[in-house]
């Protein structure tokens, strides 16, 4: 695992150190926090704002920004454009030996963003299984996948992804994939500033714990999913 994708709460500091050690690209950057969200009915309004706010609330994000499309291509395993079709149960971290460490990994909470891929912008298209990619997004655990799914207006997505199929958080922990992810499908997780969503009524794209205004100048001031995607062409 080599990305800045796994973002941790204070209670998960040990895993944050593990993720950084495995990363090699995540030793700097800034800290951001998103907290609170209104109950505005994102599906009926066609906006993905509330979904992204709830997914990112109370999560502190330390990351090194992707400086440009070229930087994203260099670091990512796969970059796709598509539609967020579902939000489902995510991976969990379990003790490698429950008898010795029954609480290992119990603090970490993830949901799965199921993205129906329309276009592979970079990487091996064969790594898209059944037309979909399964993206693990870290959350604070206070909002259920069902709640997030109810707020999904079938948002357009561009995702810069790292393959975490063989990721091992630590010798004491193992990754358990949920039943909703096919056994042969790779596990992916997004770079912090590489997951952007936009609903049909949104005039801008939204990230989970990040804002489009925070993108470096190498992204040519991309404010929408279409502009972010076009930067790869």
From TrEMBL:
Name assigned to this protein: Uncharacterized protein
PROSITE patterns linked to this entry: PROKAR_LIPOPROTEIN
Organism listed in the record: Actinomadura rudentiformis
Signal peptide location: 1-21
Keywords: Signal
Top-rank taxon: Bacteria
């Amino acid at each position: 695992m080599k990305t800045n994708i796994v973002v941790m709460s204070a209670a998960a500091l040990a895993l944050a150190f593990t993720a950084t050690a495995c990363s090699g690209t995540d030793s700097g950057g800034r800290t951001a926090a998103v907290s609170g969200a209104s109950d505005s009915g994102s599906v009926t309004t066609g906006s993905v704002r509330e979904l992204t706010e709830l997914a990112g609330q109370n999560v502190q994000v330390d990351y090194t920004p992707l400086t440009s499309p070229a930087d994203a291509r260099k670091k990512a395993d796969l970059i796709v454009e598509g539609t967020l079709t579902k939000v489902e149960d995510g991976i969990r971290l379990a003790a490698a030996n429950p008898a010795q460490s029954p609480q290992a990994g119990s603090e970490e909470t993830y949901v799965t963003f199921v993205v129906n891929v329309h276009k592979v912008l970079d990487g091996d298209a064969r790594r898209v299984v059944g037309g979909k990619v399964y993206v693990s997004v870290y959350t604070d655990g206070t909002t259920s996948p069902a709640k997030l799914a109810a707020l999904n207006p079938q948002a357009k997505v561009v995702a810069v992804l790292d393959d975490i199929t063989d990721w091992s958080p630590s010798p004491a922990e193992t990754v358990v994939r949920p039943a909703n992810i096919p056994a042969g499908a790779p596990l992916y997780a997004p770079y912090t500033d590489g997951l952007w969503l936009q609903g049909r009524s949104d005039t801008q794209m939204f990230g989970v714990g990040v804002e489009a205004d925070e993108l470096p100048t190498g992204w040519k001031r991309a404010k929408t999913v279409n502009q972010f995607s076009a930067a790869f062409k």
